[in-house]
Each structure stands twice: as C-alpha cells, then as structure tokens.
Design goal:
Helix content: 25-40%
Largest sheet: 4 strands, mixed
Number of strands: 6
Radius of gyration: 20 Å
Oligomer: single chain
Number of helices: 7
Structural class: alpha+beta
Distance between the termini: 24 Å
Shape: globular
C-alpha cells in the first residue's frame, strides 16, 4: 500500500507564484478561480510576457483535471464512476451537481483560466508543456498522479500538492483507489496436482 497510489487523482499548484502574488493556498472552487485569474493576469513568473497558463491537464494517467475538480461538486472516482449509497448502485453524471461542476469548469474556460489543451494533450505533451518556458514556469496548476516535471529540473521545487477543493455546496471529496491484489495465476479446485501447479506458477 502506498498513500500516493491510493489518492492519486491530484493537482499541483505553483507555490512560488502564490507567494509572489501574496495569495493563500486556495481551498474552495471560488478561491481557485481568483488564484487562476491572478496567475493569468499578474505575470507571476516575472518575465514581462503574458505566457502564464492558469490551469491545465491532459489525457494521460490521472491527468484529467475535470475529474479532480468534479469532486468539489459530487463524488467522482474518475474510473468506474459508480456511486454506492445505502446499498444502491448509481452514477454521478446524471445529477444536478455534475451539471453544476461542468458549468463551473466551462466558466473557467470562458475566462481563459482553464486551458483547452487539457482535452487534447497526451501525457508526453503535458510534460513537454511543463518543461517549456526556458528558465521560468508557465503553468500555475496542473493535474497528474505523479509529478510531471523532469526530476532534474529545479523548477519542480515551485510546486506543491493542491488540497481537495470545497465546492459551493460544501462538497469536498478525494477519489480513493484502494490497493487490491491482482490475480495473475489461478489454481482451481479441480487441479489434480495443486502443489505442482503452484510450483509452475
């Protein structure tokens, strides 16, 4: 069991940018909107260019920013998308809360705070984007299960995990992916020589 694997739908925020702009770590969806707005408008990387990207993700492993943000509106495990409550199996994506989450994200996109590249980039392209900008970061917040900035790049030290956000209705979830055994070799009760089968396995 590894904590990082069980809670691997996470986003990373540029703490250096927060500090440079005198901003606190956002804890709600509205606070995140204000932080992203400052990231995009106030040149936190200090290069005098409007090159900052507020929020971005990708299509790679746990890079789907939509899944991270949706947990501020309704539980979304980003895998099976099942809800189980009182023994009843259901789905989240036909609920009003899901639509509210989509509307929030659409608003971020409309304001230029949430990059549409999120919906087309693969894992390698996201890593390339994070490594761009020569000596300065250009991304404020990104979603990835593991840290996507090259280990030798000192700019990685600017980022910290963004805690799960609380939405307008007080919802705040973190998707959990329990560590479970995976069957690789099975010996059935019909095996004539299970000890030999075990040795082969």
């Amino acid at each position: 069991e590894q904590i990082g694997n069980m809670w691997n739908l996470r986003s990373w925020i540029n703490k250096t940018w927060l500090d440079a702009l005198g901003l606190a770590m956002p804890s709600t969806t509205e606070e995140l909107r204000e932080v992203l707005k400052a990231f995009v408008e106030k040149d936190p990387n200090g290069n005098g260019q409007p090159d900052e990207i507020g929020l971005v993700g990708g299509l790679g492993n746990r890079q789907q920013t939509v899944d991270f943000l949706m947990n501020a509106f309704i539980y979304n495990d980003a895998q099976d998308r099942w809800l189980v409550q009182d023994g009843v199996l259901d789905v989240p994506y036909d609920k009003d809360a899901w639509r509210e989450g989509l509307a929030y994200m659409r608003g971020l996109c409309d304001e230029g705070l949430f990059s549409p590249l999120t919906f087309t980039m693969d894992e390698a392209q996201l890593k390339q984007l994070l490594a761009s900008g020569t000596d300065r970061n250009v991304v404020g917040v990104f979603t990835a299960n593991s840290f996507s900035v090259t280990p030798t790049d000192e700019r990685r030290l600017e980022y910290e995990p963004l805690p799960p956000l609380t939405g307008p209705e007080g919802v705040c979830y973190a998707a959990r992916f329990p560590t479970l055994p995976t069957s690789r070799y099975i010996i059935t009760r019909d095996a004539k020589n299970p000890e030999l089968a075990f040795r082969i396995g």
